[in-house]
Amino acid sequence: MAYKRKDLLGMKDLSKEEILYLLDTAQQFTEINERDVKKVPTLKGKTVINLFFEPSTRTRTSFEIAGKRLSADTINFTSSSSSTTKGETLIDTVKNMESMHSDIFVVRHAYSGSVKFIAEHTDAKVINAGDGLNEHPTQALLDMLTIRQSKGRLEGLEVAIIGDITHSRVARSDVWAMTKLGVNVRLFGPTTMIPKHSEVFGCRVCKSMHEAVEGADVIIMLRIQRERQGKLLIPSTKEYAKYFGLTKDKLTLAKPDALVMHPGPINRGVELMSNVADGDQSGVLRQVSNGVAVRMAALYILGIGNNKGGMDENAS
Amino acid sequence: MKTLLKNCKIVNHDKITEGNILIDGEIIASVTASADEKADKVIDCKGKYAVPGLIDLHVHFRDPGLEYKEDITSGAKAAVAGGVTAACPMANTKPVNDNRIITEYMIKKAKEDGLIDIFPIGAMTKGMEGEELTEMGDMVEGGAIGFSDDGKPVCSAEVFRRAAEYAAQFGSFVISHAEDKSLAGAGVIHEGEVSAITGLRGIPSESEEVMVARDILMSKLTGAHVHICHISSKGTLELIKWGKSMGYNVTCEVTPHHFTLTDKELLGYDTNCKMNPPLRAQEDVDAMIEGLRNGDIDCIVTDHAPHSRDEKAQEFDLAPFGMTGIQTMLPLSLALVEKGVIDMPAFVRLTSYTPAKLIKKNDRGEIAVGKLADIAIVDPDLEYVFDMELNRSKSVNTPYIGKTLKGAALYTIKSGRVVFEFPTK
Lengths: 316, 425
Ligand SMILES: [Zn+2]
Description:
The structure holds 2 protein chains of 2 kinds.
Chain A: H1 16-32, E1 47-52, H2 57-69, E2 73-78, H3 90-98, E3 104-109, H4 114-120, E4 125-131, H5 137-151, E5 158-162, H6 169-180, E6 184-188, E7 204-205, H7 209-213, E8 218-221, H8 226-229, H9 237-244, H10 248-251, E9 259-261, H11 274-277, H12 284-304
Parallel strand pairs in A: 1-2, 1-3, 3-4, 5-6, 5-8, 6-7, 8-9
Chain B: E1 2-11, E2 16-24, E3 27-32, E4 41-44, E5 49-52, E6 54-59, H1 72-81, E7 84-89, H2 100-113, E8 117-118, E9 121-122, H3 136-142, E10 146-147, H4 157-169, E11 174-176, H5 181-184, E12 189-190, H6 193-198, E13 202-203, H7 206-222, E14 226-228, H8 234-245, E15 250-254, H9 256-260, H10 282-294, E16 299-300, H11 309-312, H12 329-338, H13 344-358, E17 375-385, E18 404-414, E19 417-421
Helix pairs in contact in B: 2-3, 4-7, 7-8
The structure holds zinc ion.
């Protein structure tokens, strides 16, 4: 097996081979999802707990379906990130869950690095379902799977990621993974949403929507979360839509067969116009179904592999 | 009782001499080349360095109020294990040291332990709320040596101005924790490459620099002495150089971690390296080293900030800022000597001579006849693993636990008494 780690915490530390192995396994699961009976007994008897310290119906549901299709017992645990206000520390929460003999934790948390922190304090396998601004590895995998299905390859493609790069764990995971696989990534967004030291991503940072979209094979539009970023980063959604939103017009600058993606849920009319989101170049729904396959692959690889206590994320 | 320290390399701020130090009671009675003085106790220092006991202008001893992290006794034990014989605790205790009673309590407790002297730094404003001045006159009389709302920067320039003016009237000074909180925002590490990589929110260097600029100008306005604490950025140092070149009464300090570690330590989300100001980039560390080399930085302090294990063992965003450091200041500073950045007299200037001058304690900071016998016998070549057994603080929030350090105090002498001996295994 090409993946020997205990956990799946992020794309940053994975090798090209490990990422490809995850993608290839996910590809196999897409076939199961097209069957009439979409259930295999692979993880029968295993317990998967979705530990969500930050609400996310979509990702949680996707992991839940993935677990159920593999016949695992899937349990949801939802709590606010500030469970410490109840006098219980994060470690206590995790140790409690662990002592109920859970095999895999799927963790979403509002703070960067906290899923790694959890993984270091439990023997259970841990899958990062999004930690703060840091990483969202299964999202990167489903993005790449969708692109590979559409374009037949990843290497050499021009991918534009547009929106709030600074506050996006999706953008980070995409960048770490794609650049390893030879994708040319370009970034664009309001200056207030581009990290000051974006050179560390090894991507081209564009100066205009025009430059970002021109000749792109794939355009990934990020979700704008005004409630989280306050009112300082953009003056209005109207102005955002004008300068940073993807319209049908702007899309014509990209390659004729360019694929449009979005991690969802879409703010229609803000980052993505409806006629683009629902148009025939949109890969948005394909992303959602690939999400299940990718999460099945992650659960399968960690759940079946006898890799307990093996290499940790820092070992490479 | 007389104690003779034989065969030392005696280091002062201006020179190194070979010789013997005779201590009579609490005072240095003579410093001579020959060793035929009569003494009750003789310690042969065999060519090791004798330096004035280190004076740490910036510590957090958490006493009163948060003694589970540290108290004055445990803080003093850690201090003497690091060659430190005097320390200045910041005012953010519980309750805040904004009155003479707490100031006197701290001094008295340290006196009873007899390990180190404590010179408290009083709060600049009542409750460290940034609004009303504390009774600085009364607190100075009680033993406070300076005033700071460390950790809670004074937002209002007017309040800072009045505090500086008022402190100066009582022969004291203000210490600025320079940080524009509105710019630092929800940041938890330096804003730089590592914050971009890790998704940990950044604190830009400019959040320090804008306040340093303001506080230098407040010194210009008032003529009062403004000391900028724990500086961390290259830009800050440039501003301080400018302030000094203009003749304003500004000084500054740096911690060993800010001249030793970069934000790269945070790539693995180690909360022991979460501190405020944050560990910055290599160019900032290089600037700190250059500032120590050429004398732009006045002294080395630890910002010793103990926190319990549980407080540090949580989500990075929730963990408190700060690391312990009073026991590692000596080896980390001697590393600068080893690298040739500074020489031993400069080490003494940075760690005791200038600190004593800044707090106007003329009885220490030098090894000379008539001065207080606060002395550390230092072996710069001693290598050891800094482990739980050596650690004397109640807290262990330091990245140096388990690491090999070089340079230690073999003996620490406080007012003529040996208060620490390096354990021989
Ligand atoms: Zn401070």
